Amino acid sequence: MGKLIKNHLARLIVMTAATYHIAASLHGFFWPKFFFDFLTKNFDDAVKPVPILQTINLIFGFINLAWEWPLEFLAGTAIHRSLELRILLLPL
């Protein structure tokens, strides 16, 4: 029973993090200077002319959310069950 509760809690934590990831990338679309300029000016090329950094973050946020709360065609597939692939992509 404890293992089930820990797995469910981990899923909820990753889903919450993915939701915040999506919200932060949407925030970066509307206020790119405020969101990325307070630390360094190195990200100016990836943020200003075309929002590359925000788009990548939005895509990874949706991928993480789709993995933990899968659609019907994704549930139970090898990609959904692959722990190694999750370990590779979750830090991104």
UniProtKB/TrEMBL annotation:
Any Pfam family from its record, for instance, is DUF7727
The residue ranges of the DUF7727 domain are: 1-92
Q: Give TM regions.
A: 12-30
Q: Which UniProt keywords apply?
A: Membrane, Transmembrane, Transmembrane helix
Report the protein name in the record.
Answer: DUF7727 domain-containing protein
